[in-house]
């Protein structure tokens, strides 16, 4: 008898949802995609062609899908606004959950998912921060753990998307939570990873511009923003988010320690080709985060599957997902208000005058 | 009813055979590994643990395996000496064949496989040259096709392994066909790809040393060798093979055209991490060809599967596999004999005195 | 009759003073070093061996030196505290002035030098910002001028020194003006160059730590600091200064425009050597800013000389030197006070409550 | 009294001659350019403007120039055909000699210069191989000396010029000695440096094409050529020369040892700028060898000067210059004849049949 496969359902078949569904279908030998849900007819029509023939039952109702017999886990790639509700419902049906980030743009709602997960502690509930599954970040983390850079003290990290002139990002800004919640949340999660998830912000500043998408202003958002988070334990992280890159995706991180430095993706590249021509030497770089992190998403799929089947620990804590959104929200507040935020040693907001 | 999957058997479960078996088992959603064969008890014992539980029937007899009902294809990763015989037997059983390179170190035997394949022209028969499936090489090839470098004229390519002090390569040299047949065959295949598979050698030279493995001399082999092949159409390829690299696998290619140049893997790298320390900036590089080409092997597995199921063309001709070994053998002859070889415009050997 | 050479005196023969003296002596074919001054006996003793034999008259009194007949220019490389006074005295003697940065750590004193220079408008008075004379920065600037990156909008720049465990930097902090005045002033000057020297800060934030030199705290200084300057014209610059680098000098700049990006020294390197070894591939990087900018200092020497002899314009305005120190001081204030600073559209400080 | 300066005369004011003259005039603080010669009126006219005003006496007759009183050294940058004669005449006038490479394209004539130099052993006589003065090559050599790569065993080196469609190289081929004598001579000199100048060739092969300059064939020359030299001590060097590069000068060297590898200029670059744009990331590379080696030529000028003044040893032996041309000529013979050359253990030519 072959080893049991994890029976997984996919909720949401949009840009990311589709990718999760296909990863569970094709790239996860220990998983079996058995169901998929979308409220969107065109997404369902795609699924009829691409999932149904492989034994995937389709639903236009999330509740019905999670009631499917034998189901063990659900991967949630729907709109952010329903992530939390769907995650909680899944737990109530005794299903493991892999949820796209963020759990919510509201801290309160994020916390409700964590509370639910604590109640169902036998379930694996993970919010997918793809960089945690990237070989290069992992190698950098191991080197940090080995003490190669001494005490990590400064972290610089950026999430920079290729400029998309279509206006997509303006519409998206209406509900994304803002550039620090939507983009820098990855860099903040890296900070929690490399600095330790017990770090407590001491002060936060942020500044931004709308250089190519002036309409972002109506949603209090920016297309380029820089923020600094100083922590109480003598560490500083600083972030740059941009939606204006000409060449492609530039997600770069530096971890600077007292005895060395590690960079990840300091020189973005599409592949190992260099083209020498009359104008010099050119290499291409990935157009999107998918081009950069495709393999990390596959790792995520397989490691989540293994954790569910084998009862092994997940490589990241659900509470981090809340903390990352929380710090992102503070940065966004600092950005929009033009005020520096301050916190005491147990993380409570204080007014500077009080200091 | 889900789409049909290709039922595949794996012959040979040594270093490469294992990898092929696992790729068909886990990385090829449209294939199903149903059988595996090895004459080696310890390999079979591995298979009992790692393949049998997933529905793979095990054999210690190749002929019995290929007689398994419903089988559609076989991947051959046994010792080189039996590649050809097994490939031909498989065709006679009406099976598609993916065979590890080389078909044989004997040109005559190589040709017998091509002849058999012509007789069974409805079957897909491929000798796996993994670089043909590598994204970077493919990108370079497309750029060449687009005319970005003008007319490709000079090709430099090297296959350089990390130094292995275990003595493995000395034993291996007894039957590998020599460094140009075993290693440079990949670089020669790239030459046929980028220059066109109709190129005809005009003259061939080679020189080598045994710098770290003096015992190779007893098999007329070398641990470092450089060879040049000049073609009749005004193109030159030159190759470097080494088993002495300190840092890891260094398989690098340059294609130099009349208007530009493309390099593939000019700067080998393990991943996207750079480590800054008191001695400078260091990046690691892959220890083995598997570290460099793992994804290419997965692509190969999937594209072979698709070609068998859909009847689409394979991306490389079987006859190239013969031609690459033939040129490799000439280089080896030039290397061992210390003589330059010459050929007329239809590829017949000539003595220089005749010129 | 050979063309006239510029007769130059060197004030200060410490670390930088020595280098300026030697550059005028040996690397500036159109200049002639005729005098040198130091109040320090050991520096004078060095000068007796290294300058006097080449016709350089030595002084232990600055006023006497600048009274030397025929003198045309002075290069000032003394302690920062006397830069301004010496520069003004030199102008009063009708001498051109090349002064090491900064003119002063006090804005008022800086301005007094500018006022003096305006009175002596026939004299060339320059505060040496070496990066303005670096080929790579110049190339990046030209590319920016050509419109290659659209409208420059974000500038990231860092001045990062190799960690010096000797304690030198602690003593130095007593009078350096702090990390943003001493180090980031170069990055701020680059900002004025690439963004235009008419930019007006809108808000400023900064955060820092003392990771390896805790004694810096007694001078209100930091060994790692990050600051952001948002300008009124929709541009943002952010800076990182560190005295903790393990590998060497890492002065890196990115200029990000609406249509492209330019990096300068994104991959620091000592030279063109890469060393492949069992641990990977390593390159060294310069240990000091001198290793990085030696040629820029030579260019500075020669261009200052040419401007004096030929009456051609200097490549940077003296007023920038004041503005750079001013912004540096604001960053330092923001760093030390933990407050965000705000400015109105004509650059006057405002309290946030007023907004 | 200031230290004495070396009084130098420059012979030849063409492309290279001009540069040598200006280096001695402006970049060599311990030298004084006192005379210059050219048979060419337009070169003399240039010298009237650029050298004469600085105290340089001009000549249209070499013999008269070297008779100038007080002269101590001559730098020879005339046509190759007169290098040797001028060098010998200079020695007879008791002058130190820095001669552009090669001494001659004839081995016999080269040797006559060495013989003359032996007779005047108190004189410094150097044939300028600029790479010996390049910081990167020197660093690589020191690392080799320190044993970082074990025993150097394979050397790959290339001299590749940017394609010049003007036809200059065709005319130049009439007297250059061919691509291996003109270009690879630098790479051969590097070989003598890194392998030791006592290496003796065992066998030599070469192949070439005329891809962009078919007219080169009338001078038996090639625009792309690859050659291999196998030495008797178990080392192999291989060379690539090209006049077809699209991007600029690509002079790259790898020294591969039994325990490591050093690369010099594996990634050619104009400066430290990278340009990110919609097509990727681009860096420029130097258009000419001068762009790559300008500083090496300055070092050469100053070290030759110091050796003459201080009686210190030159960093390279004159006999190497002969040996490099000799090996270059063998490569050229192998290239043109289509024959592999063989040598016995004391370097005498042998026919393969004899082996």
UniProtKB/TrEMBL annotation, chains A, B, C, D:
<feature type="domain" description="Gfo/Idh/MocA-like oxidoreductase N-terminal">
    <location>
        <begin position="7"/>
        <end position="127"/>
    </location>
</feature>
<dbReference type="InterPro" id="IPR036291">
    <property type="entry name" value="NAD(P)-bd_dom_sf"/>
</dbReference>
<dbReference type="InterPro" id="IPR055170">
    <property type="entry name" value="GFO_IDH_MocA-like_dom"/>
</dbReference>
<dbReference type="Pfam" id="PF01408">
    <property type="entry name" value="GFO_IDH_MocA"/>
</dbReference>
<dbReference type="GO" id="GO:0000166">
    <property type="term" value="F:nucleotide binding"/>
</dbReference>
<dbReference type="GO" id="GO:0005737">
    <property type="term" value="C:cytoplasm"/>
</dbReference>
<dbReference type="GO" id="GO:0006740">
    <property type="term" value="P:NADPH regeneration"/>
</dbReference>
<feature type="domain" description="GFO/IDH/MocA-like oxidoreductase">
    <location>
        <begin position="138"/>
        <end position="262"/>
    </location>
</feature>
<protein>
    <recommendedName>
        <fullName>NAD(P)-binding protein</fullName>
    </recommendedName>
</protein>
<dbReference type="GO" id="GO:0016491">
    <property type="term" value="F:oxidoreductase activity"/>
</dbReference>
<comment type="similarity">
    <text>Belongs to the Gfo/Idh/MocA family.</text>
</comment>
<dbReference type="InterPro" id="IPR000683">
    <property type="entry name" value="Gfo/Idh/MocA-like_OxRdtase_N"/>
</dbReference>
<dbReference type="Pfam" id="PF22725">
    <property type="entry name" value="GFO_IDH_MocA_C3"/>
</dbReference>
């Amino acid at each position: 008898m072959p080893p049991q496969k994890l029976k997984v359902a996919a909720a949401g078949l949009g840009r990311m949802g589709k990718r999760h569904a296909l990863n569970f279908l094709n790239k996860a030998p220990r998983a079996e995609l058995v169901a998929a849900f979308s409220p969107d007819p065109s997404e369902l029509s795609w699924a009829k062609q691409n999932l149904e023939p492989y034994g995937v039952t389709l639903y236009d109702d999330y509740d019905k899908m999670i009631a499917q017999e034998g189901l063990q886990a659900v991967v949630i790639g729907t709109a952010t606004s329903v992530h939390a509700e769907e995650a909680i419902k899944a737990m109530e049906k005794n299903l493991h959950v892999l949820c796209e980030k963020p759990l919510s743009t509201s801290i309160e709602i994020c916390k409700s998912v964590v509370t639910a997960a604590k109640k169902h502690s036998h379930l694996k509930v993970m919010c997918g921060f793809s960089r945690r599954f990237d070989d290069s970040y992992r190698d950098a983390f191991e080197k940090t753990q080995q003490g190669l850079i001494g005490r990590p003290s400064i972290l610089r990290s950026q999430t920079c998307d290729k400029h998309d002139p279509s206006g997509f990002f303006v519409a998206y800004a209406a509900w994304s939570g803002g550039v620090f919640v939507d983009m820098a949340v990855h860099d903040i999660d890296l900070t929690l990873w490399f600095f330790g998830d017990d770090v407590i912000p001491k002060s936060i500043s942020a500044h931004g511009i709308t250089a190519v998408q002036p309409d972002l202003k109506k949603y209090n958002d920016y297309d380029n923003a820089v923020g600094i988070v100083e922590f109480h334990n003598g560490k500083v992280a600083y972030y740059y988010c941009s939606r204006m890159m000409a060449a492609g995706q530039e997600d770069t991180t530096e971890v600077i320690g007292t005895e060395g430095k590690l960079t990840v993706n300091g020189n973005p590249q599409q592949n190992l080709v260099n083209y020498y021509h009359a104008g010099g030497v050119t290499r291409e770089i990935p157009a999107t985060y998918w081009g950069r992190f495709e393999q990390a998403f596959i790792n995520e799929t397989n490691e989540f599957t293994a954790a569910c089947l084998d009862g092994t620990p997940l490589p990241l804590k659900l509470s981090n997902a809340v903390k990352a959104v929380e710090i992102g929200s503070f940065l966004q507040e600092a950005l929009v208000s033009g005020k520096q935020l301050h916190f005491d040693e147990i993380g409570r907001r204080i007014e500077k005058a009080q200091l």
